[in-house]
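Why do we care about 3D structure at all? Because function follows from shape, and shape follows, mostly, from sequence. That is the central idea of this module. The next example makes it concrete: a single protein chain, its amino acid sequence, and then its structure expressed as tokens.
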Amino acid sequence: MGVINITPDSFSDGGLYSNTADAMAQADRLVADGADILDIGGESTRPGAPPVSAPEEISRVIPVIRGIVSRHPKVPVSVDTSKPEVAREAVEAGAVIINDVTGVSSPQMARIAAQYNLPVVVMHMKGSPRDMAKKARYADLMGELKSYFTGRITSLGRAGVSKIIIDPGLGFAKTAKHNIEILNRLDELVELGYPVLVGASRKSFLGKILGAPPQERDAGTAAVTALAVMKGAAIIRAHNVVMNRHAAIVAASIRDRKV
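And the structure:
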């Protein structure tokens, strides 16, 4: 899953693709690099990021989604949003996956997913991007994540949503130590029986390990990708598609003992 942030303030690539032409050029590059999915977001979810109105978010993402669907019709588009009104506009424009950092907590978002029979990415986060850093406390981290996902799966099933992808939310109300524990025990989430998405790309815990800024964390991201694939992750969300695709292919080959 290749990432395109159409925002001025995302932690890694804020401002690089903030207009439609630049975002489309990046989409072309990611598809050429082998992206299976393009994830389009119009609001930064970095810690402390200010909120963006629905009309502003729509104005950022819809032209890009339409452009991708027209230019790359075989590449599924995911919309990274927590706002139902943005999701509906994105789906009408051709998006086929809803990636919601709030875990599809809005009944309206669930209704949209059910209406269109779409897959949803259900992410774990405490609080919101504005205050999540203060909520990174757990008595039983993996127990809480498994309980959360079990609850969301049941609730969404009642709402008619059956295509569910779970995302542990690395960095979202998680310290570096929490992220490392989740990655070491990722197979416990895989055992829930739903595809697991891992989004570690260029995140701050890699910076803490490497002492490197976001743009110099791709090799560290690839290391996480290899581990995650070995543990059973189904989807890797990344900025550098080539490097992480290669890491995933090699890790899967080793895991499956196939050359």
